[in-house]
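TASK: fixed-backbone design
INPUT:
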């Protein structure tokens, strides 16, 4: 039986490119670790691709500038510098677009709760350059949804896809700003049919606190509620596979001043239990604790993850390996989701409320079609090689 993962073991499971990317998410930008990172083993196209996918170009470029002399090839550094310039420009555009939205919604009397990356940016001295994001997310009461869209149109936002295509989503059809930026108006935090406590938007709006963002006042979740929502969003909605860098980056900044075992972590535990979401919150925070240095104690993690279980060591290894894409991350979607469901301990199984089956209209879950026979030839060899890479990676061989 495999032993529980330590932080050193977890980091060793990541490919060198992913280890460098994770370091760029640390509170100090990876400066203290720069000299000890596996620079000689980095596959530079993979690292640059991961940074682009995670929208971490600016942060990675800052870390590459602090690498030991000669560790980063000139062409990789130049490519990342160009990507960083684009990211900085995009951050300024996001700030302008968010400011226009704040003013328009306030003038119309619409109560809006800013979520995820935008909420963090509005509370951070670095503003929207604190990290990249794909879009702006905010929650409004469903009764104010049309008023919110009208206000945003008046401020320069335009409609995108036909609203009826989003009838079964928990957010309305995205709106667009010049340059292709997107804004999603949420009427709920999770898609219809989710397995968590059925709390309406009004309850989440009631949890908001007001903070100053420059000359404006905005509503955001308190840090402990933000941690809970971000953890559920990453570990459940994104199955612990998409937005991993962003999650690790944000959780450190949200919890940096907390004390292990203190009142803030007790509040996170209490909120997660209230929502019936202790498993996704626990696994998300466990990942953050193993790959970074959030100040959470193991006792709280065990209370969230509901104690030890048979084969957890293997589940932990699968969970870490799948966090950042690589050729060894998973040999199949079914395999990946098997381990995901195991970590969630059946959450959503009774009603078929898995994240991949929600928010896309009526979904009929059919049994997988059996292949006519086992694969042969080059395809069989390719599949066998992929399984071998994965198992060797998970077992640390």
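OUTPUT:
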């Amino acid at each position: 039986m495999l032993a529980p993962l330590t932080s050193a073991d977890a980091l060793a499971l990541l490919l060198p490119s992913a280890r460098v990317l994770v370091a760029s998410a640390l509170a100090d930008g990876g400066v203290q670790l720069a000299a000890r990172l596996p620079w000689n083993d980095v596959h530079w196209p993979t690292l640059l691709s991961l940074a682009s996918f995670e929208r971490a170009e600016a942060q990675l470029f800052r870390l590459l500038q602090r690498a030991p002399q000669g560790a980063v090839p000139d062409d990789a550094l130049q490519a990342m510098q160009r990507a960083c310039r684009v990211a900085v420009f995009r951050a300024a555009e996001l700030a302008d677009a968010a400011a226009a939205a704040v003013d328009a919604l306030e003038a119309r009397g619409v109560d809006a709760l800013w979520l995820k990356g935008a909420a963090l940016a509005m509370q951070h001295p670095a503003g929207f350059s604190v990290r990249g994001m794909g879009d702006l997310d905010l929650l409004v009461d469903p009764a104010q949804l049309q008023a919110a869209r009208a206000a945003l149109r008046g401020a320069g936002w335009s409609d995108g896809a036909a609203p009826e295509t989003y009838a079964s989503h928990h957010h309305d059809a995205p709106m667009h700003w010049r340059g292709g930026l997107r804004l999603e108006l949420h009427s709920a935090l999770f898609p219809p049919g989710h397995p968590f406590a059925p709390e309406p938007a009004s309850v989440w709006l009631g949890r908001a606190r007001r903070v100053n963002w420059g000359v404006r006042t905005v509503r955001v979740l308190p840090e402990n509620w933000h941690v809970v929502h971000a953890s559920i969003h990453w570990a459940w909605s994104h199955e612990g596979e998409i937005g991993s860098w962003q999650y690790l980056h944000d959780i450190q900044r949200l919890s940096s001043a907390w004390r292990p075992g203190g009142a803030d972590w007790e509040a996170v535990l209490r909120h997660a239990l209230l929502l019936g979401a202790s498993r996704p919150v626990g696994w998300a925070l466990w990942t953050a604790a193993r790959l970074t240095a959030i100040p959470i104690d193991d006792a709280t993690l065990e209370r969230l993850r509901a104690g030890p279980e048979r084969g957890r060591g293997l589940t932990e290894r699968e969970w870490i390996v799948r966090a950042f894409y690589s050729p060894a991350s998973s040999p199949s979607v079914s395999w990946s989701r098997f381990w995901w469901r195991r970590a969630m301990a059946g959450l959503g199984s009774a009603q078929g409320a898995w994240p991949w089956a929600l928010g896309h209209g009526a979904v009929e879950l059919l049994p997988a079609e059996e292949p006519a026979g086992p694969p042969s030839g080059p395809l069989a060899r390719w599949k066998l090689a992929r399984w071998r890479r994965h198992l060797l990676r998970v077992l640390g061989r």
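COMMENT: Residues 108-221 form one domain.
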